[in-house]
Amino acid sequence: MDNPRLYLWIGLALLAWMNVIQWNRDYGAVATSPPAASAPAAGDVTPAADSVAGQLPALPTDTGTPAATADAAPAALPSTASAAEQPSIRVVTDVLDMEVSLKGGTLVRADLLQYPQAKTKDSPPVRLLTTADGGYEIARSGLRAIGGGAEPTHLATFAAAAREFRLAPGAEELRVPLTWTDGQGMVVTKTYTFKRGSYEIVLSHDVNNGSPGDWKAASYVQFVRHMYTQKRSMFDVESYAYRGPAIYNGQKFSKIDVNDEDEAKFSEAFAGGWMAEMQHHFVTAAVPPVSETFDYTLGVEGTHSVLGFRGPLKNVPAGTTAQFSDKIWVGPKLQEQLKAMGPRLELTADYGKLTIISQPLFWVLSKVHGFVGNWGWSIIIVTILLKLLFYKLTETSGRSMAKMRTIAPRIKSIQERYKGDREQLAKQTMELYKREKINPVAGCLPIVVQIPVFLAFYWVLLESVEMRQAPFMLWIQDLSAKDPYFILPAIMGAAMYGQFKLNPAPPDPMQAKVFAFMPLVMTVMMAWFPAGLVLYWITNTGLSIAQQWNINRVVAAEAKTSH
Q1: N- or C-end of the chain: fewer Cβ atoms within 10 A?
Q2: What pairing do the DSSP bridges indicate for beta strands 164-166 and 88-92?
Q3: Same domain assignment for residues 327 and 412
Q4: Same domain, yes or no, for 386 and 281?
Protein backbone atom coordinates (compact mmCIF):
# COMPACT_ATOMS: atom_id res chain seq x y z
CA MET A 1 0.00 0.00 0.00
CA ASP A 2 1.27 3.49 -0.83
CA ASN A 3 -0.44 5.99 1.48
CA PRO A 4 -0.05 5.40 5.22
CA ARG A 5 -2.69 8.04 5.92
CA LEU A 6 -5.25 5.54 4.68
CA TYR A 7 -4.11 2.48 6.66
CA LEU A 8 -6.84 3.13 9.19
CA TRP A 9 -9.45 3.04 6.44
CA ILE A 10 -7.93 -0.12 5.01
CA GLY A 11 -8.18 -1.85 8.36
CA LEU A 12 -11.75 -0.68 8.89
CA ALA A 13 -12.72 -1.66 5.33
CA LEU A 14 -11.21 -5.12 5.82
CA LEU A 15 -13.02 -5.68 9.09
CA ALA A 16 -16.28 -4.36 7.62
CA TRP A 17 -15.94 -6.63 4.58
CA MET A 18 -15.35 -9.70 6.72
CA ASN A 19 -18.36 -8.82 8.87
CA VAL A 20 -20.55 -8.40 5.78
CA ILE A 21 -19.43 -11.80 4.49
CA GLN A 22 -20.09 -13.41 7.86
CA TRP A 23 -23.52 -11.79 8.11
CA ASN A 24 -24.57 -12.80 4.61
CA ARG A 25 -23.36 -16.36 4.96
CA ASP A 26 -24.00 -17.46 8.46
CA TYR A 27 -26.03 -15.07 10.62
CA GLY A 28 -29.13 -17.15 10.30
CA ALA A 29 -27.23 -20.33 11.22
CA VAL A 30 -26.85 -19.42 14.88
CA ALA A 31 -30.52 -19.41 15.62
CA THR A 32 -32.64 -22.48 15.88
CA SER A 33 -32.59 -26.21 15.78
CA PRO A 34 -33.60 -27.59 12.39
CA PRO A 35 -37.21 -28.65 12.04
CA ALA A 36 -37.67 -32.39 12.25
CA ALA A 37 -39.27 -34.04 9.24
CA SER A 38 -41.86 -36.71 9.80
CA ALA A 39 -40.86 -39.81 7.89
CA PRO A 40 -43.48 -42.25 6.60
CA ALA A 41 -43.16 -45.90 7.41
CA ALA A 42 -41.45 -48.21 4.99
CA GLY A 43 -44.57 -49.90 3.77
CA ASP A 44 -46.86 -46.89 3.41
CA VAL A 45 -48.21 -46.08 -0.02
CA THR A 46 -48.28 -42.38 -0.90
CA PRO A 47 -49.75 -40.53 -3.85
CA ALA A 48 -47.49 -39.45 -6.69
CA ALA A 49 -47.16 -35.93 -5.26
CA ASP A 50 -45.44 -37.23 -2.15
CA SER A 51 -41.75 -37.88 -1.67
CA VAL A 52 -39.70 -40.29 -3.71
CA ALA A 53 -36.60 -41.85 -2.16
CA GLY A 54 -37.06 -40.01 1.10
CA GLN A 55 -36.69 -36.39 -0.01
CA LEU A 56 -37.00 -36.53 -3.80
CA PRO A 57 -40.23 -35.36 -5.45
CA ALA A 58 -42.66 -37.68 -7.17
CA LEU A 59 -42.14 -38.88 -10.71
CA PRO A 60 -43.13 -36.12 -13.16
CA THR A 61 -46.58 -36.10 -14.73
CA ASP A 62 -46.22 -32.97 -16.86
CA THR A 63 -43.37 -33.89 -19.21
CA GLY A 64 -45.01 -36.42 -21.46
CA THR A 65 -44.32 -39.40 -19.22
CA PRO A 66 -47.17 -41.52 -17.88
CA ALA A 67 -48.58 -40.30 -14.60
CA ALA A 68 -48.19 -42.48 -11.54
CA THR A 69 -51.57 -43.38 -10.11
CA ALA A 70 -52.37 -43.88 -6.47
CA ASP A 71 -52.36 -47.62 -7.04
CA ALA A 72 -49.06 -47.59 -8.93
CA ALA A 73 -47.24 -44.98 -6.86
CA PRO A 74 -43.90 -46.07 -5.41
CA ALA A 75 -43.82 -46.76 -1.70
CA ALA A 76 -42.41 -43.95 0.40
CA LEU A 77 -39.00 -44.61 1.87
CA PRO A 78 -38.09 -44.16 5.51
CA SER A 79 -35.83 -41.40 6.72
CA THR A 80 -32.04 -41.74 6.80
CA ALA A 81 -31.23 -45.43 6.92
CA SER A 82 -28.13 -46.73 8.64
CA ALA A 83 -26.23 -48.15 5.68
CA ALA A 84 -23.13 -48.48 7.87
CA GLU A 85 -24.79 -51.37 9.76
CA GLN A 86 -24.98 -53.46 6.58
CA PRO A 87 -22.21 -55.54 4.93
CA SER A 88 -19.89 -53.42 2.86
CA ILE A 89 -17.03 -53.62 0.40
CA ARG A 90 -13.77 -51.67 0.34
CA VAL A 91 -12.52 -49.81 -2.74
CA VAL A 92 -8.94 -48.52 -2.90
CA THR A 93 -7.36 -46.44 -5.66
CA ASP A 94 -4.19 -44.35 -5.66
CA VAL A 95 -6.11 -41.36 -4.21
CA LEU A 96 -9.20 -42.82 -2.50
CA ASP A 97 -9.93 -45.42 0.16
CA MET A 98 -13.70 -45.94 0.22
CA GLU A 99 -16.33 -48.11 1.80
CA VAL A 100 -19.50 -48.97 -0.11
CA SER A 101 -22.46 -50.45 1.73
CA LEU A 102 -24.21 -53.36 0.03
CA LYS A 103 -27.44 -51.83 1.27
CA GLY A 104 -28.22 -49.61 -1.69
CA GLY A 105 -24.61 -49.36 -2.83
CA THR A 106 -24.31 -46.22 -0.67
CA LEU A 107 -20.92 -44.50 -0.32
CA VAL A 108 -20.47 -44.45 3.46
CA ARG A 109 -16.78 -43.67 3.87
CA ALA A 110 -14.19 -41.83 1.79
CA ASP A 111 -10.59 -41.20 2.89
CA LEU A 112 -8.45 -38.89 0.73
CA LEU A 113 -5.10 -40.65 0.76
CA GLN A 114 -3.03 -37.70 -0.48
CA TYR A 115 -4.46 -35.19 2.01
CA PRO A 116 -3.44 -35.73 5.65
CA GLN A 117 -5.50 -33.99 8.30
CA ALA A 118 -2.39 -32.33 9.73
CA LYS A 119 1.25 -31.86 8.77
CA THR A 120 2.49 -34.52 11.16
CA LYS A 121 4.21 -37.79 10.40
CA ASP A 122 1.40 -40.20 11.24
CA SER A 123 -1.59 -37.97 10.56
CA PRO A 124 -4.61 -39.90 9.18
CA PRO A 125 -6.03 -38.80 5.84
CA VAL A 126 -8.95 -36.42 5.53
CA ARG A 127 -12.22 -38.34 5.81
CA LEU A 128 -14.82 -36.69 3.60
CA LEU A 129 -17.64 -39.24 3.88
CA THR A 130 -18.38 -40.87 7.21
CA THR A 131 -21.19 -42.31 9.31
CA ALA A 132 -19.71 -40.89 12.52
CA ASP A 133 -22.30 -38.77 14.32
CA GLY A 134 -20.30 -35.52 14.43
CA GLY A 135 -19.54 -35.32 10.72
CA TYR A 136 -22.16 -37.62 9.20
CA GLU A 137 -22.19 -37.47 5.42
CA ILE A 138 -23.02 -40.19 2.91
CA ALA A 139 -23.84 -40.35 -0.81
CA ARG A 140 -26.77 -42.58 -1.65
CA SER A 141 -28.31 -43.30 -5.03
CA GLY A 142 -30.62 -45.64 -6.90
CA LEU A 143 -33.46 -46.09 -9.35
CA ARG A 144 -37.02 -45.24 -8.36
CA ALA A 145 -39.60 -47.30 -10.23
CA ILE A 146 -43.38 -47.08 -10.49
CA GLY A 147 -45.73 -49.99 -10.35
CA GLY A 148 -45.45 -51.04 -6.73
CA GLY A 149 -42.90 -53.82 -7.18
CA ALA A 150 -39.34 -54.21 -5.93
CA GLU A 151 -36.91 -51.51 -7.00
CA PRO A 152 -33.13 -50.89 -6.69
CA THR A 153 -33.24 -47.89 -4.34
CA HIS A 154 -30.73 -47.10 -1.59
CA LEU A 155 -32.70 -49.50 0.62
CA ALA A 156 -32.33 -52.51 -1.70
CA THR A 157 -29.74 -55.22 -1.10
CA PHE A 158 -26.99 -55.55 -3.70
CA ALA A 159 -24.46 -58.32 -4.27
CA ALA A 160 -20.75 -57.96 -5.06
CA ALA A 161 -18.25 -60.45 -6.49
CA ALA A 162 -15.63 -59.57 -3.87
CA ARG A 163 -15.28 -57.79 -0.55
CA GLU A 164 -12.38 -55.63 -1.72
CA PHE A 165 -11.52 -53.95 -5.01
CA ARG A 166 -8.11 -52.34 -5.66
CA LEU A 167 -6.74 -50.40 -8.58
CA ALA A 168 -4.08 -52.69 -10.05
CA PRO A 169 -0.54 -51.37 -10.62
CA GLY A 170 -0.38 -49.86 -14.09
CA ALA A 171 -4.16 -49.93 -14.52
CA GLU A 172 -5.91 -46.66 -15.36
CA GLU A 173 -9.41 -47.70 -14.36
CA LEU A 174 -11.20 -49.67 -11.66
CA ARG A 175 -14.79 -50.86 -12.11
CA VAL A 176 -16.83 -51.94 -9.09
CA PRO A 177 -20.10 -53.67 -10.13
CA LEU A 178 -22.94 -54.35 -7.71
CA THR A 179 -25.92 -56.46 -8.79
CA TRP A 180 -29.59 -56.37 -7.86
CA THR A 181 -32.48 -58.52 -9.09
CA ASP A 182 -36.16 -58.73 -8.24
CA GLY A 183 -36.20 -62.49 -8.93
CA GLN A 184 -38.67 -62.05 -11.78
CA GLY A 185 -36.38 -61.13 -14.64
CA MET A 186 -35.29 -57.58 -13.69
CA VAL A 187 -31.52 -57.27 -13.28
CA VAL A 188 -29.78 -53.96 -12.47
CA THR A 189 -26.00 -53.64 -12.33
CA LYS A 190 -24.88 -50.59 -10.39
CA THR A 191 -21.27 -49.78 -11.33
CA TYR A 192 -18.85 -47.29 -9.81
CA THR A 193 -15.96 -46.50 -12.15
CA PHE A 194 -12.80 -44.96 -10.67
CA LYS A 195 -9.85 -43.51 -12.62
CA ARG A 196 -6.22 -43.25 -11.60
CA GLY A 197 -5.33 -39.90 -10.07
CA SER A 198 -8.94 -38.69 -10.17
CA TYR A 199 -11.65 -38.05 -7.57
CA GLU A 200 -14.37 -38.28 -10.21
CA ILE A 201 -16.54 -41.38 -9.93
CA VAL A 202 -18.83 -42.41 -12.78
CA LEU A 203 -22.04 -44.00 -11.47
CA SER A 204 -24.05 -46.09 -13.92
CA HIS A 205 -27.16 -48.24 -13.54
CA ASP A 206 -27.42 -50.81 -16.35
CA VAL A 207 -30.93 -52.20 -16.56
CA ASN A 208 -31.72 -55.56 -18.21
CA ASN A 209 -35.48 -55.99 -18.38
CA GLY A 210 -36.05 -59.74 -18.63
CA SER A 211 -39.54 -59.44 -17.21
CA PRO A 212 -42.70 -59.81 -19.33
CA GLY A 213 -43.69 -56.14 -18.98
CA ASP A 214 -42.30 -52.62 -19.41
CA TRP A 215 -40.38 -51.09 -16.51
CA LYS A 216 -40.41 -47.36 -15.79
CA ALA A 217 -37.86 -45.73 -13.49
CA ALA A 218 -35.89 -42.57 -12.73
CA SER A 219 -32.38 -42.30 -11.30
CA TYR A 220 -31.53 -40.20 -8.26
CA VAL A 221 -28.55 -39.16 -6.14
CA GLN A 222 -28.73 -37.80 -2.59
CA PHE A 223 -26.19 -36.33 -0.17
CA VAL A 224 -27.25 -36.84 3.43
CA ARG A 225 -25.30 -34.66 5.85
CA HIS A 226 -25.36 -33.76 9.51
CA MET A 227 -26.62 -30.24 10.19
CA TYR A 228 -24.64 -28.14 12.60
CA THR A 229 -24.15 -24.52 13.63
CA GLN A 230 -21.13 -22.88 12.06
CA LYS A 231 -19.23 -20.63 14.46
CA ARG A 232 -16.83 -17.90 13.39
CA SER A 233 -13.52 -17.14 15.10
CA MET A 234 -10.73 -14.78 14.03
CA PHE A 235 -8.33 -17.32 15.50
CA ASP A 236 -9.45 -19.99 13.03
CA VAL A 237 -9.33 -19.08 9.33
CA GLU A 238 -11.17 -22.30 8.46
CA SER A 239 -14.25 -21.03 10.27
CA TYR A 240 -14.76 -18.39 7.56
CA ALA A 241 -15.06 -20.97 4.78
CA TYR A 242 -18.61 -21.88 3.75
CA ARG A 243 -19.92 -25.29 4.81
CA GLY A 244 -23.21 -26.48 3.43
CA PRO A 245 -25.21 -27.30 0.28
CA ALA A 246 -24.86 -25.46 -3.01
CA ILE A 247 -26.65 -25.59 -6.36
CA TYR A 248 -25.75 -24.49 -9.87
CA ASN A 249 -28.85 -24.22 -12.08
CA GLY A 250 -27.05 -23.75 -15.38
CA GLN A 251 -26.81 -20.00 -14.94
CA LYS A 252 -26.33 -19.11 -11.28
CA PHE A 253 -24.35 -20.59 -8.39
CA SER A 254 -26.22 -20.47 -5.06
CA LYS A 255 -25.40 -21.52 -1.52
CA ILE A 256 -28.37 -22.66 0.56
CA ASP A 257 -28.88 -22.09 4.27
CA VAL A 258 -30.43 -25.33 5.56
CA ASN A 259 -31.38 -23.59 8.80
CA ASP A 260 -33.52 -21.06 6.96
CA GLU A 261 -37.09 -22.34 6.86
CA ASP A 262 -37.75 -21.11 3.32
CA GLU A 263 -34.40 -22.08 1.80
CA ALA A 264 -34.62 -25.55 3.38
CA LYS A 265 -37.63 -26.21 1.13
CA PHE A 266 -35.61 -25.66 -2.04
CA SER A 267 -37.13 -27.32 -5.10
CA GLU A 268 -36.28 -26.50 -8.70
CA ALA A 269 -36.01 -28.27 -12.05
CA PHE A 270 -33.31 -27.40 -14.59
CA ALA A 271 -30.79 -28.81 -17.04
CA GLY A 272 -27.04 -28.26 -17.21
CA GLY A 273 -26.58 -27.96 -13.46
CA TRP A 274 -25.22 -29.81 -10.45
CA MET A 275 -25.37 -30.02 -6.67
CA ALA A 276 -22.65 -30.02 -4.03
CA GLU A 277 -22.01 -30.32 -0.31
CA MET A 278 -19.15 -27.91 0.41
CA GLN A 279 -16.61 -27.43 3.16
CA HIS A 280 -13.18 -25.88 3.53
CA HIS A 281 -10.91 -27.14 0.71
CA PHE A 282 -13.08 -30.22 -0.05
CA VAL A 283 -16.38 -30.95 -1.74
CA THR A 284 -18.81 -33.73 -2.56
CA ALA A 285 -20.61 -33.01 -5.82
CA ALA A 286 -22.89 -34.77 -8.28
CA VAL A 287 -23.38 -33.89 -11.93
CA PRO A 288 -26.19 -35.47 -14.00
CA PRO A 289 -26.26 -35.52 -17.81
CA VAL A 290 -26.31 -31.87 -18.89
CA SER A 291 -28.80 -32.42 -21.69
CA GLU A 292 -31.63 -33.62 -19.44
CA THR A 293 -33.82 -31.74 -16.96
CA PHE A 294 -33.47 -32.96 -13.37
CA ASP A 295 -35.49 -32.13 -10.29
CA TYR A 296 -33.35 -30.77 -7.42
CA THR A 297 -34.60 -30.65 -3.84
CA LEU A 298 -33.35 -29.92 -0.36
CA GLY A 299 -35.04 -31.38 2.68
CA VAL A 300 -34.49 -32.34 6.28
CA GLU A 301 -34.48 -35.75 7.95
CA GLY A 302 -34.21 -35.19 11.67
CA THR A 303 -30.78 -33.64 12.21
CA HIS A 304 -29.65 -34.37 8.65
CA SER A 305 -30.08 -32.33 5.50
CA VAL A 306 -30.83 -34.21 2.28
CA LEU A 307 -29.73 -32.59 -0.97
CA GLY A 308 -30.75 -34.55 -4.04
CA PHE A 309 -31.67 -34.65 -7.68
CA ARG A 310 -33.87 -37.01 -9.67
CA GLY A 311 -33.91 -37.48 -13.40
CA PRO A 312 -36.75 -37.92 -15.87
CA LEU A 313 -38.82 -41.09 -15.93
CA LYS A 314 -37.57 -43.53 -18.58
CA ASN A 315 -39.35 -46.56 -20.01
CA VAL A 316 -37.44 -49.83 -20.46
CA PRO A 317 -39.57 -52.16 -22.63
CA ALA A 318 -39.61 -55.88 -21.92
CA GLY A 319 -36.63 -57.71 -23.36
CA THR A 320 -34.49 -54.55 -23.72
CA THR A 321 -31.71 -52.80 -21.82
CA ALA A 322 -31.08 -49.21 -20.73
CA GLN A 323 -28.49 -47.21 -18.84
CA PHE A 324 -28.76 -44.37 -16.34
CA SER A 325 -25.54 -42.44 -15.71
CA ASP A 326 -24.35 -39.71 -13.32
CA LYS A 327 -21.00 -38.41 -12.08
CA ILE A 328 -19.93 -37.94 -8.47
CA TRP A 329 -16.92 -36.05 -7.11
CA VAL A 330 -15.53 -36.88 -3.68
CA GLY A 331 -12.34 -34.97 -3.02
CA PRO A 332 -10.41 -31.70 -2.93
CA LYS A 333 -11.46 -28.60 -4.84
CA LEU A 334 -9.01 -29.06 -7.71
CA GLN A 335 -10.34 -26.42 -10.06
CA GLU A 336 -9.02 -27.70 -13.37
CA GLN A 337 -10.41 -31.19 -12.79
CA LEU A 338 -13.70 -29.83 -11.48
CA LYS A 339 -14.05 -27.61 -14.53
CA ALA A 340 -13.62 -30.64 -16.78
CA MET A 341 -16.22 -32.67 -14.89
CA GLY A 342 -19.16 -30.26 -14.91
CA PRO A 343 -20.23 -26.79 -16.09
CA ARG A 344 -18.74 -24.15 -13.75
CA LEU A 345 -18.10 -26.81 -11.10
CA GLU A 346 -14.91 -24.93 -10.23
CA LEU A 347 -17.19 -22.42 -8.46
CA THR A 348 -17.16 -24.80 -5.49
CA ALA A 349 -13.76 -23.22 -4.80
CA ASP A 350 -15.75 -20.48 -3.15
CA TYR A 351 -14.14 -17.05 -3.49
CA GLY A 352 -17.37 -15.26 -2.66
CA LYS A 353 -18.30 -11.93 -4.21
CA LEU A 354 -14.73 -11.37 -5.44
CA THR A 355 -14.68 -14.49 -7.64
CA ILE A 356 -14.29 -12.28 -10.73
CA ILE A 357 -10.91 -11.11 -9.36
CA SER A 358 -9.89 -14.21 -7.39
CA GLN A 359 -10.17 -16.69 -10.25
CA PRO A 360 -7.79 -14.76 -12.57
CA LEU A 361 -5.42 -14.27 -9.61
CA PHE A 362 -5.41 -18.00 -8.94
CA TRP A 363 -4.89 -18.72 -12.63
CA VAL A 364 -1.81 -16.48 -12.71
CA LEU A 365 -0.56 -17.98 -9.44
CA SER A 366 -0.92 -21.51 -10.77
CA LYS A 367 0.88 -20.65 -14.01
CA VAL A 368 3.78 -19.09 -12.08
CA HIS A 369 3.80 -22.10 -9.75
CA GLY A 370 4.19 -24.32 -12.79
CA PHE A 371 7.58 -22.67 -13.38
CA VAL A 372 8.92 -22.13 -9.84
CA GLY A 373 7.31 -25.08 -8.05
CA ASN A 374 6.81 -23.17 -4.77
CA TRP A 375 3.62 -21.35 -3.82
CA GLY A 376 5.44 -18.87 -1.59
CA TRP A 377 7.73 -17.70 -4.38
CA SER A 378 4.70 -17.69 -6.68
CA ILE A 379 2.97 -15.23 -4.33
CA ILE A 380 6.04 -12.98 -4.32
CA ILE A 381 6.37 -13.05 -8.12
CA VAL A 382 2.65 -12.36 -8.69
CA THR A 383 2.85 -9.47 -6.20
CA ILE A 384 5.70 -8.02 -8.24
CA LEU A 385 3.63 -8.42 -11.41
CA LEU A 386 0.68 -6.66 -9.76
CA LYS A 387 3.00 -3.87 -8.64
CA LEU A 388 4.18 -3.43 -12.21
CA LEU A 389 0.57 -3.44 -13.42
CA PHE A 390 -0.36 -0.63 -11.02
CA TYR A 391 2.99 1.17 -11.29
CA LYS A 392 1.77 4.25 -13.18
CA LEU A 393 -1.26 4.54 -10.94
CA THR A 394 0.80 4.39 -7.76
CA GLU A 395 3.48 6.65 -9.24
CA THR A 396 0.95 9.49 -9.47
CA SER A 397 0.09 8.98 -5.82
CA GLY A 398 3.77 8.69 -4.91
CA ARG A 399 4.70 11.95 -6.60
CA SER A 400 1.90 13.72 -4.75
CA MET A 401 3.17 12.30 -1.46
CA ALA A 402 6.75 13.31 -2.30
CA LYS A 403 5.67 16.87 -3.09
CA MET A 404 3.73 16.97 0.16
CA ARG A 405 6.96 16.06 1.91
CA THR A 406 8.91 18.87 0.22
CA ILE A 407 6.34 21.52 1.22
CA ALA A 408 5.90 20.19 4.76
CA PRO A 409 7.85 23.13 6.30
CA ARG A 410 5.62 25.62 4.47
CA ILE A 411 2.50 23.79 5.63
CA LYS A 412 3.77 23.96 9.19
CA SER A 413 4.39 27.71 8.81
CA ILE A 414 0.81 28.25 7.59
CA GLN A 415 -0.50 26.24 10.52
CA GLU A 416 1.38 28.39 13.00
CA ARG A 417 0.32 31.62 11.29
CA TYR A 418 -3.40 30.78 11.17
CA LYS A 419 -3.61 28.65 14.30
CA GLY A 420 -6.77 30.37 15.50
CA ASP A 421 -8.48 30.80 12.13
CA ARG A 422 -9.55 27.46 10.67
CA GLU A 423 -11.18 29.03 7.61
CA GLN A 424 -8.02 30.90 6.61
CA LEU A 425 -5.88 27.87 7.44
CA ALA A 426 -7.87 25.70 5.04
CA LYS A 427 -7.92 28.42 2.36
CA GLN A 428 -4.15 29.11 2.49
CA THR A 429 -3.35 25.39 2.56
CA MET A 430 -5.49 24.70 -0.51
CA GLU A 431 -3.95 27.64 -2.37
CA LEU A 432 -0.50 26.24 -1.63
CA TYR A 433 -1.58 22.86 -2.98
CA LYS A 434 -2.93 24.56 -6.11
CA ARG A 435 0.26 26.57 -6.73
CA GLU A 436 2.43 23.47 -6.30
CA LYS A 437 0.00 21.32 -8.36
CA ILE A 438 -0.53 18.85 -5.54
CA ASN A 439 -3.65 16.75 -5.18
CA PRO A 440 -3.94 15.83 -1.48
CA VAL A 441 -6.36 12.97 -2.22
CA ALA A 442 -4.30 11.50 -5.07
CA GLY A 443 -3.41 8.52 -2.87
CA CYS A 444 -7.01 7.37 -2.59
CA LEU A 445 -7.38 5.82 -6.05
CA PRO A 446 -4.52 3.31 -5.70
CA ILE A 447 -5.94 2.25 -2.34
CA VAL A 448 -9.44 1.83 -3.78
CA VAL A 449 -8.02 -0.34 -6.57
CA GLN A 450 -5.76 -2.42 -4.33
CA ILE A 451 -8.21 -3.22 -1.51
CA PRO A 452 -10.32 -5.56 -3.73
CA VAL A 453 -7.12 -7.22 -4.96
CA PHE A 454 -5.97 -7.70 -1.36
CA LEU A 455 -9.32 -9.21 -0.35
CA ALA A 456 -9.36 -11.40 -3.46
CA PHE A 457 -5.87 -12.64 -2.53
CA TYR A 458 -7.20 -13.42 0.94
CA TRP A 459 -9.90 -15.72 -0.45
CA VAL A 460 -7.51 -17.36 -2.92
CA LEU A 461 -5.13 -18.24 -0.09
CA LEU A 462 -7.93 -19.29 2.24
CA GLU A 463 -10.03 -21.38 -0.14
CA SER A 464 -7.63 -22.83 -2.74
CA VAL A 465 -6.79 -26.39 -1.73
CA GLU A 466 -3.55 -26.10 -3.70
CA MET A 467 -2.32 -23.77 -0.93
CA ARG A 468 -3.34 -26.18 1.84
CA GLN A 469 -0.27 -27.23 3.83
CA ALA A 470 1.91 -25.79 1.03
CA PRO A 471 5.39 -25.01 2.41
CA PHE A 472 7.40 -21.89 1.62
CA MET A 473 10.75 -22.11 3.38
CA LEU A 474 12.27 -22.23 6.86
CA TRP A 475 9.50 -22.10 9.50
CA ILE A 476 6.64 -21.41 7.05
CA GLN A 477 5.35 -24.88 6.23
CA ASP A 478 1.70 -23.99 5.55
CA LEU A 479 0.90 -20.85 3.57
CA SER A 480 -2.84 -21.24 4.19
CA ALA A 481 -2.40 -21.08 7.99
CA LYS A 482 -1.09 -18.35 10.27
CA ASP A 483 2.64 -17.98 10.92
CA PRO A 484 3.18 -20.23 13.97
CA TYR A 485 5.81 -17.88 15.42
CA PHE A 486 4.26 -14.58 14.21
CA ILE A 487 7.56 -13.59 12.59
CA LEU A 488 6.04 -12.55 9.25
CA PRO A 489 3.44 -10.27 10.92
CA ALA A 490 6.24 -8.64 12.93
CA ILE A 491 8.24 -8.04 9.74
CA MET A 492 5.11 -6.65 8.12
CA GLY A 493 4.54 -4.25 11.01
CA ALA A 494 8.15 -3.02 10.85
CA ALA A 495 7.85 -2.51 7.08
CA MET A 496 4.61 -0.57 7.49
CA TYR A 497 6.19 1.66 10.14
CA GLY A 498 9.16 2.28 7.84
CA GLN A 499 6.77 3.27 5.07
CA PHE A 500 4.94 5.59 7.47
CA LYS A 501 8.20 7.35 8.34
CA LEU A 502 9.09 7.66 4.66
CA ASN A 503 5.98 9.70 3.90
CA PRO A 504 4.99 13.12 5.24
CA ALA A 505 3.29 13.05 8.62
CA PRO A 506 -0.34 14.25 8.82
CA PRO A 507 -0.62 17.94 9.75
CA ASP A 508 -2.81 17.14 12.75
CA PRO A 509 -0.65 15.82 15.65
CA MET A 510 -3.47 13.53 16.82
CA GLN A 511 -3.79 12.03 13.33
CA ALA A 512 -0.03 11.55 13.26
CA LYS A 513 -0.20 9.53 16.48
CA VAL A 514 -3.09 7.43 15.17
CA PHE A 515 -1.29 6.61 11.92
CA ALA A 516 1.95 5.88 13.77
CA PHE A 517 -0.02 3.38 15.85
CA MET A 518 -1.70 1.73 12.84
CA PRO A 519 1.25 -0.58 11.96
CA LEU A 520 0.87 -2.18 15.40
CA VAL A 521 -2.90 -2.55 14.95
CA MET A 522 -2.47 -4.14 11.53
CA THR A 523 0.28 -6.44 12.86
CA VAL A 524 -2.01 -7.80 15.57
CA MET A 525 -4.90 -8.21 13.12
CA MET A 526 -2.78 -9.88 10.43
CA ALA A 527 -1.14 -12.23 12.93
CA TRP A 528 -4.12 -14.59 12.51
CA PHE A 529 -4.31 -14.36 8.73
CA PRO A 530 -2.81 -16.96 6.35
CA ALA A 531 0.97 -16.67 6.16
CA GLY A 532 0.71 -16.40 2.37
CA LEU A 533 -1.42 -13.27 2.69
CA VAL A 534 1.06 -11.68 5.10
CA LEU A 535 3.84 -12.61 2.67
CA TYR A 536 1.93 -10.77 -0.06
CA TRP A 537 1.53 -7.68 2.15
CA ILE A 538 5.23 -7.67 3.12
CA THR A 539 6.28 -7.96 -0.52
CA ASN A 540 3.87 -5.23 -1.60
CA THR A 541 4.95 -2.91 1.23
CA GLY A 542 8.64 -3.49 0.50
CA LEU A 543 8.10 -2.67 -3.17
CA SER A 544 6.07 0.41 -2.20
CA ILE A 545 8.91 1.61 0.04
CA ALA A 546 11.43 1.17 -2.77
CA GLN A 547 9.15 2.95 -5.25
CA GLN A 548 8.40 5.83 -2.87
CA TRP A 549 12.07 6.25 -1.93
CA ASN A 550 12.96 6.56 -5.61
CA ILE A 551 10.12 9.02 -6.26
CA ASN A 552 11.13 11.11 -3.24
CA ARG A 553 14.68 11.27 -4.59
CA VAL A 554 13.53 12.31 -8.07
CA VAL A 555 11.06 14.93 -6.79
CA ALA A 556 13.67 16.39 -4.42
CA ALA A 557 16.12 16.69 -7.32
CA GLU A 558 13.44 18.36 -9.46
CA ALA A 559 12.69 20.82 -6.66
CA LYS A 560 16.36 21.82 -6.38
CA THR A 561 16.59 22.28 -10.14
CA SER A 562 13.47 24.44 -10.29
CA HIS A 563 14.84 26.71 -7.57
Answers
A1: C
A2: parallel
A3: no
A4: no
